[in-house]
Amino acid sequence: MTRWxxxxxxxxxxxxxxxxxxxxxxxxSTDPAHVWSVLTAHDALVSxxxxxxxxxxxxxxxxxxxxxxxxxxxxxxxxxxxxxYRWEEGRQITFTAESASRPGFRRFAEDITxxxxxxxxxxxxxxxxxxxxMLTPLxxxxxxxxRRVTRGWARGLAHKALDHPKGASR
Length: 170
Description:
The chain is of the alpha+beta class and 170 residues long. It has one domain (5-163): Alpha-D-Glucose-1,6-Bisphosphate, Chain A, domain 4 (2-Layer Sandwich), CATH 3.30.530. Helix content is 24%, strand content 40%. It contains 4 helices and 8 strands, in the order βαβαββββββαα. The protein has helices at 12-17, 32-39, 136-141, 143-163; strands spanning 5-6, 20-28, 52-57, 68-73, 78-88, 92-100, 105-117, 120-131. Strands 1, 2, 3, 4, 5, 6, 7 and 8 form an 8-stranded antiparallel beta sheet that branches. 25% of the residues are buried.
């Protein structure tokens, strides 16, 4: 049985001010509604990232504020239990991680915003984290790797949205 370590709740202020904060902006040549359908699909995350090996929506549809999900990296190497505190259908989702399967994080949050753009959609994906003092030096040192990994997730979503035809079943 997995041991879970509780995390403190994060909010919008934390997303703006966290010591460890990564923001990616990607432009997609498809409309926000289509990107949203890929972002909230049953296979969200695992279908566009080889590092994320499970993503289980633990709340029934229709999703909204309070929706929960468990995301697993590396076939169980680490996992997060997430609770969405913002769900603006078709435009923005924001979650705080409520617990992690590994110690070291104090707070963790992500925000994904889809804005209409003349050429399609502007995707902005923000990651924010606060770590324990023991993990802080490692996270500071590994920022270039974390930026590359999270950039890959944002680009993976973009490629999945462009490769998955509009109107295809999810």
